Amino acid sequence: MVIVQVITGGLLLGAVYALFSSGLTLIWGMMNVVNFAHGDFVMIGMYVAFLIYTYLNGGPIEFVLASAVVLFVLGVWSYTGLVRHVMSGTLLSQMLATFGLALVLRYATFWIFSSNFRSLPEDLIGGTLNLGGILISMPKLVAGVVAIALTLGLHGLLTRTAIGSQLLAVSEDRNAAMLMGIRPDRMQALAWGLAGAGTGIAGALIATFYYISPSVGETLALVAFVVVALGGFGSVPGALIAGLLIGVIQELSAYLLGPVYKDVVVYALFVAVLWIRPQGLFGKF
Amino acid sequence: MRWVWIALGAVFLAYPWVLAGPFYERMGALVLLAAISGSAWNLLGGYAGQASVGHAIFYGAGAYLPLLVFTQWGLPPIAGLPAGIAVSVLIALVIGIPTFRLLGHYFTMATVAVAELVRLVVSNWDLLGAAVGLSGPAVSRGWWDLSFRSSIPYYYIFLAVLAVVLLVTWQMERSRMGFYLRAIKAGDRAARSLGVPVRRYKLYALMLSAAFTSVAGSLYALMVGFVDPDSGLGILISIEMLIIAALGGAGTLFGPLLGAVILIPLQNATNSWFGGSGSGATYVIYGGIIMLIARYQPGGLMNAWHALQERRHRRAAAVEPRHAA
Question: How many structural domains comprise chain B?
Fold first, then answer.
């Protein structure tokens, strides 16, 4: 029975992982740029939630929306102000750009809020749900369900709408897309905005049950990298499945081996994926 | 080129006499140490274009082993230096063999993940002091412990090691390997189609880079006499090497040295300006610098300087014929 509960917890956590990883995979797949600041986007989302709750008395709906808006803007700015200018450069300069952004975000937060761990009150969203002996905490349930819905929504947006087709067209061939009357820069800025908004929502959702600190992004970024590597670069459904899988593996290893080892297992899994199946489970190349 | 070497050598040999006092001597030693690790990173990240964000593993191996041979068997710490190199090269192979089959970001990502993995394992490994870390000899038992109160002996040891690293880099730059690595950097597939054994040479560069980084870690452990997971294996160690090389000029011989000469004093200054929370401000500035380099001067300061000189030469060449006429 405990195992079932652990797995359920892992699935719900994994759903949130899937949501913020799909932002990373979207950008990686679309323009072959790795956003090393991705984890810090999640962290900013968490702080937005914390600030709105603490200083403006906002509830979950308010801070999730606020976080989505803030991170949408940050995402668009990251593209138009920074990434657009280094896209044609070397791999190193692309990496440096987002790495620099990561450092600025992380340590500016550290500077302003110090390294103290913060958290939102546990009873912010409901209490605990009892499903025939399986206890599920409401914040995790809400976060997990919302995250799955949004990840599927993002997949739908990419595959079933005109905007999605335009985004994919730009990622396939920038020049050809331009000849079809699509503005690549606008589309890529939109992709960064969408990735940011998804990440922001994920951050605000995680904040309801996770500690908040300036360095939390580092851990979460690695989780996102593992999810993306496992799911296959650029694949949103891959990120969803890999995210759920990683969530379950993490919770199971925390339960079976001890909490210290939950990250060790995930990183070891990442190295194993690189050794055995570097293109990921659903990767194209 | 020879004059550059002589001039640089003279400046660095004279430095402790020009700026005397423990503060400047220690800072000088730290600049040289940063230049060593930056130059080591540069071999792979600069020349071969394979950016690693996990060099802290090699630095940490180099820092932990000297203190480990001391705490376990009471050996002089320097005896752990070769062991550190061996471990580093081994880890380099474990990371390099699978990831160099792949292009682009894979290697970078793998280095981040392996570095975190190693840091977590070491943080929970009692033999290596877990979260507390390891300490060297509290009181020097003899010259062979290489434990000095003044920073000057370290300064000159570091200077000698830096000279070796730069000489090796210089030789490599002009050798077949240098051309191969630059070809790999310019285009992996193109290099392969021209017959460059891409994977093998990437591995050579990684192993050489890991070995030198490990030496830098050992030197750090000798000077400070203490290492813990954060100071030996933290991701910021890797980032610092990357920034120092990129600021000065990744893939140039003296770039990392220039980067270290600028960044380490800057770091000292920000730490003393901003006090306790200074490390936050320091890294905000680091991040800002990296973004600016990436955005405006991806080749680093050395390349900016070369471009400036070239323009001056061209202008001079354009002016001359008019005088002749």
Answer: 1
